[in-house]
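Page header: ASSEMBLY MODEL / three components / 894 residues total.
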Amino acid sequence: MFSLEGITNSINTWLNHTFNPTLALFFEFVIVGLSVIGLFAVLGLILVLMERKVSAYMQIRLGPNRVGPGGTLQTVADTLKLVVKEGLTPEGADKFLFNLAPFLVIITSMLVLAPIPFAKGFQIWDINIGVLYVSAVSSVSVIGVLMAGWASNNKYSLLGAMRSGAQIVSYELSAGLSIISIVVLTGSLQLSDIIASQQNGWWIFKGHIPVIIAFVIFIIAVTAETNRAPFDLAEAESELTAGFHTEYSGMKFALFFLAEYVNIFIVCSIGAILFLGGWMPLHIGSWSGFNHIMDYIPSSVWFIGKVFFLIFVIMWFRWTFPRLRIDQLLNLEWKYLLPISMLNLLLITLIAIMGWHF
Amino acid sequence: MTNEELKIKLTELVPSAVFEEGGEWITAFVDASNWKTIAQQLRSNEDFKFDYLFCLTCIDWKTHLTMVYHLTSTIYRHSLIIKAKLDRNDPEIETVSDTWRTAEFHEREAYDLFGVKFLHHPDLRRLLLTDDFNGYPLRKDFEDPVNMIKL
Amino acid sequence: MYRQTEILSDHTKSSPLEGDLEGAGDLVINVGPQHPSTHGVLHLVITLSGETIKNVEPHLGYIHRSIEKMCESLSYRQFIYVTSRMDYLSSHINNHGCALCVEKGLQIEIPPRAKVIRVLMDELTRLASHQLWWGAMAMDVGALTPFFHAFREREMINDIMEETCGARLTMNYMVPGGVMYDLHPDFQKRVKEFVEEFKNKIGEYDELVTGNIIFQNRMKDVGYLSKEDAISYGCTGPTARGSGVSCDIRKLYPYEVYSELQFDEVIETGGDCFARYLVRMQELRQSLSIVEQLIDNIPEGDFQAKTKAVLKLPKGEFYSRVETARGEFGVYIVSEGGTTPYRIKFRSPGFSNLSTLNHMAKGYKIGDLVAIMGTLDLVIPDIDR
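Prediction written out in full:
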């Protein structure tokens, strides 16, 4: 059946035939770079439109439906508008840091896309410390946030950036512990190994209760890490200001905006890979007939389906729950989520050693 | 307490009170100079217990100003109106904002619109109009040829 | 009302050499006048120490229209409709209060049909006002969806009002003596449909917002107002009833047909934001039951008592009070016998409720300030007049 592996293999062989290996490698770099940037653009388009439509239907209204058939070209129009806007730099702002911050945030998002397998064999860089790499590189975006808040020369931006920074750093701990639970069960940090270990069933089913707890904590922690409601105090519109990106306008603001949505995609895809099997179809133990039927659906469709399901859940949170106050937010992490995830990790280690999972 | 009983008790407390006839509640005129003690008595005295000041206003009678205080007791459910005559050129009266906290804002409004000075008010500033406004609009002799349209 | 705001407080300048500077490094920020969560044009100058509020100072007057002075040149039939523009969410109730005052002065007897129509309109207005409050309160705290749900039900009331009174917001319907026109023939049917629909939806409101643990954590133990303070500050309405003060005018000084109706005065003793929130949610149910009791028993007859074309109140003073959605609305008319009042004072509920804001918000955080203002249910044109 249809598999993206075939395409990548054929491009590889054709390049190696036509040019010498170094040049072929260079061309592959260029192709990968362009497709990542293209993926970014397409993802931004789709996710912003999805957010607007999902929120509209939850609020008994229609959302954008004029630009393009059913409103699909709305984001294109928005991007054009942002591109032609005047990019203001406030007086007294630290010009170098002010201009660097959005690029830092975007670059870290792009880097994290490297080890993610979009389909069977369709991975940019299958590094053997895949999960650790993702966790580490995504932490670097905090620097970009703090840079933006500081360099804006605006006390409200600084306040918002400080809050954001504190929030992101705290919730990384719980997210990290949930990720480690799966690593313990799998025995490997490599993303392709983690997916391969879900050949006979996704971890959320195989690992029963402790893995479900880890999953719930993971979803809460990543919602907080990406500054989404109900944890969006840093950019709450009905409180003070728009947080660390108040002073940004035009293309730089578009980069922050885009980076936020791509971050959501990235954390949802990590969640899908670790807990829901990534591109692995739904297999149940040794029911080979059932498994064979499930294999007919291409792996890329499985992956996209799972990731967008998780994205929908995170969007659902935003339009249902009120906002947490900053002290309640940090309380939740340090007093509740962190102890629970540590105990959960011990439990999962016990299960892994005794072989009490399916 | 009924109106008659209130009248008797009030005359005991303030012998110089002058009562106005008519209206559903007792209306008493008191001296502006000992208003503070009377107010404290009205609040704390066991017979009265007027703890709720629900309306504080001022009326401009062209020759003098009158302060009007509407009081009621949430315990006995009786009501009273206290009035005090003030000199038009230099209207001053003691504040009651430490007795009834609601008076703080109401007195600022009366100062703003009528020019009544409330002695010992914690923060007597204009409330509704701009800080640099000239004049007291709700007085009957207030003229503003630009903004006021006379029908 | 315009003053230059010092960003850092003056304490830092006065005592530079003292060790422990009280007030040093206090931040003074402005909230408003244009701001998504002040419902109207209210300017707050907040002194913060870190995230904790030390002082809140409201600056009023941005929508001061000198209504009291205007009414001195309007006739007794005309001044009633100016009050619709004060608290525009309880416009019927405000007009009712003014009409009652004029009727007290003229000693007019109102026909029973007019009384029942007035009470029905009042209670529908109270329902609409509380629905809007609920939506806006949830939006301030961060839940953006209940706003749309609240307006969906409110639209039904607006449509009913539009059919009978001709307008959706400032319905000039009450006159001294009764109401201006008779009810629309479809009125009973539409109100019955609304009552059925709303009874189902009110459970949804509770499920979506009241029972939500995040919402409860934002509202519980925030903005405490004790009973003595509520009385001293002159609070009325749900603000005071949330602190245990019994002050419902409909029960204490009944007017129209309220003495014959079966409804409870809702009192909670918590004193915090959540108690005030629960009071208003319960009031929604009570108003709904009042509407149900009355809608089938509207007596026949005149909708307006016969009055002269030009009204002249006798010399004297008259005070009447009604219970609006926000508290006690008092109308104090001083008349010299002419066709226009000599002095009118409108005792608005929001004015006294706002004065508690500084007292309630001290020591809490900025996020709590938004929750407190939401539960006070301020409508600024009512405060500024």
